[in-house]
């Protein structure tokens, strides 16, 4: 019986990331970025709603407003699903947040912060 070589951490991350739905991957990236920014002492979150609004207008024109108003549906679904939240946490800890070993409560708090400080102001444009 031939033993296969163990996968490197980057290979594990790539395989796990491919198995995730696109929506979960994007939320993991957002939450991971926020957690890293906070750890590094940078916090550009206040600028995100305006930047996102400008990007929506540039890309979608007249559809920007309805899109901005429903922008939080995916992250809300992630935060309300224990299974998806656990999956997102696992991916974050294998990739973006490897050195931080973030727990569920930190991911939930960061997601709620993103909703309050980015998505709610974005919906008001």
Description:
The chain is an all-alpha fold. 72% of the residues lie in helices and 0% in strands. Helix 2 (22-40) crosses helix 6 (82-94) and helix 2 (22-40) crosses helix 7 (104-123). The N and C termini lie far apart (62 Å). The relative contact order is 0.19.
* Helix and strand sequence: HHHHHHH
Distance between the termini: 62 Å
Count of DSSP strands: 0
- What does the radius of gyration come to? 17 Å
Q: Tell me about the biggest sheet?
A: none
Q: Based on helices, strands and strand pairing, what is the structural class?
A: mainly alpha
Strand content: under 5%
User: What is the mean pLDDT?
Assistant: 75
Helix content: over 70%
Shape: elongated
Tell me the layout of helices and strands.
Layout: H1 9-19, H2 22-40, H3 48-60, H4 64-69, H5 73-80, H6 82-94, H7 104-123
Helix pairs in contact: 2-6, 2-7, 3-7
Structure, briefly:
This protein has 125 residues and is an all-alpha fold.
Entry keywords:
125 residues; mainly alpha
């Amino acid at each position: 019986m031939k033993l296969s070589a163990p996968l490197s951490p980057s290979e594990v991350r790539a395989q796990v990331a491919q198995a995730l739905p696109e929506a979960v991957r994007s939320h993991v990236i957002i939450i991971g970025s926020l957690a890293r920014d906070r750890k590094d002492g940078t916090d550009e979150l206040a600028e995100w709603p305006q930047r996102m609004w400008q990007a929506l207008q540039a890309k979608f024109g007249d559809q920007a407003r309805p899109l901005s108003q429903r922008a939080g549906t995916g992250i809300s679904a992630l935060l309300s699903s224990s299974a998806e939240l656990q999956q997102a946490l696992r991916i974050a800890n294998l990739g973006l947040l490897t050195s931080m070993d973030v727990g569920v409560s930190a991911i939930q708090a960061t997601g709620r912060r993103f909703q309050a400080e980015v998505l709610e102001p974005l919906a008001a444009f």
